[in-house]
Protein 1
Amino acid sequence: GENVEQHPSTLSVQEGDSAVIKCTYSDSASNYFPWYKQELGKGPQLIIDIRSNVGEKKDQRIAVTLNKTAKHFSLHITETQPEDSAVYFCAASGETSYDKVIFGPGTSLSVIP
Amino acid sequence: EAGVVQSPRYKIIEKKQPVAFWCNPISGHNTLYWYLQNLGQGPELLIRYENEEAVDDSQLPKDRFSAERLKGVDSTLKIQPAELGDSAVYLCASSVSWDANNEQFFGPGTRLTVL
């Protein structure tokens, strides 16, 4: 089955700096890669996703890149703000009704004012 | 529009006691998920419903866990009897349909502590 690894497990950055979180997956058949943000006491919330036919996607200060050959994908947050502090989960999934979304272990991001 | 509603938010019980969690998904969402989230880890799927049918319960420990989704709307997850290792956050999520590419909307979760 699919296995998703995520690094680093914790990340501290100064406000205004960039943050990068990297993930790897094992199943070459995976083709959908969402990123979720989980704030304290809340459930995860989708912030951006990318499909295997796209190498990069950007939404304001957030961007994701995908390297299918290497089975790597990354989340980039620019101009970080204190409200970006949260736990971020990468995930991977196939496209059939039998596929489930497999989450990584999470990265705790702290943005220091 | 209301999000996914879960209750209770917190539950403390002694081991061997039964416990139940309730979830009300977003209106019109046919697919409902129950996830287990251990401290410092990502959510792990326990069971997925398409309307009232459980289509993926391979990760549900069926000796002590059970779930139902009455009339394809609300869902209840039960543990009987609870064990110390069941302490975790139980998340409910819903999506429009089964397509794994559809966004899943998560509730706030129920934090279970088993003493």
Protein 2
Amino acid sequence: DTAVSQTPKYLVTQMGNDKSIKCEQNLGHDTMYWYKQDSKKFLKIMFSYNNKELIINETVPNRFSPKSPDKAHLNLHINSLELGDSAVYFCASSLGTRSGNTIYFGEGSWLTVV
Amino acid sequence: TQLLEQSPQFLSIQEGENLTVYCNSSSVFSSLQWYRQEPGEGPVLLVTVVTGGEVKKLKRLTFQFGDARKDSSLHITAAQPGDTGLYLCAGGSNYKLTFGKGTLLTVNP
């Protein structure tokens, strides 16, 4: 069973569209994240949720709206997509919020905005 | 803003060679992690170091955390093609993990 699974893996869409990426973890973790990896492979945190509560929001445009219906799910909705949103988006989870905890990443969702 | 600088950015070596990758910051971290990412996959944790001066070994990989907890190094002995990948260091503090920009390692057979 995949520990952190996200869908879709590939997404090609036009500018201005709205899209969602879904994420689920079956590890029983309390903390979930969304990371963005740009074309230069720089991995940057976007959001962090602990027990469904938002704890980190890193200067992300408000076109990006995470939603955590329960501890095992953290979905990412993006409105009015722009060319610069093209990147790989990784969902991840960890046991808790301590910075030394292992973070388990999904396989990534490759978003291309044309 | 905490920044982690990794060097070199790219490294291409022959099988059997040794290499060292560096991760430096002006900030102190409570922990330092190393991840490896293969193409089309998410990063996977290799090691976590938490004590200044700590050295951890994972088969042919040796990880060191600087005494001041601001820097770290990853040394690979007798590199193999299977070691090819993007190596990311990540510093932890204040419930947040900050990633370096990575070292893309290619080991040629």
